[in-house]
Amino acid sequence: MLLFIVGICNETSKTEFICICSLGWQGSNCEIQTNYCQNVTCQNNGVCRSLTKNYTCECLGDSYSGRYCQIESNTLVFHQTISKSFAFIAIIAMASVMMIVIVMDIMKYCFGIDVISKDLKRIRQRTKVRKRKTPIIIRFIYVN
């Protein structure tokens, strides 16, 4: 009889023996550690770790918890709700700007109403006044 740390082996003949493995070990010589994570899938990027007689899912960060990292934390739910709200507001803002542009184009090209023509004329007049002023060139003469 041979005693190993992971099992007990008994000789059945001079060339053969049979081993009874301790819990968590398997194989003909008890050389393979049992992988309890073989059929376990941890959720949300959790990492499965084999223990002596069991397994555990180690959740990355503080966002998830539970046996399989399946429970979302309150802060994660709050952040997801806030980001969805901001996305909704951003979509509404973009749609509103697009609608204003479309309405302005329809008013200008279909009905001949130009809402900003007065402002454009005033801006063009200011730029013309600025362009009319020619710079005065002064040539300095240096005397020794």
UniProtKB/TrEMBL annotation:
Membrane-spanning parts: 86-111
Domain EGF-like: 33-70
Superkingdom field: Eukaryota
Keyword entries, A-Z: Disulfide bond, EGF-like domain, Membrane, Repeat, Transmembrane, Transmembrane helix
Entry protein name: EGF-like domain-containing protein
Organism: Adineta steineri
The organism's taxonomic lineage, starting at the top: Eukaryota, Metazoa, Spiralia, Gnathifera, Rotifera
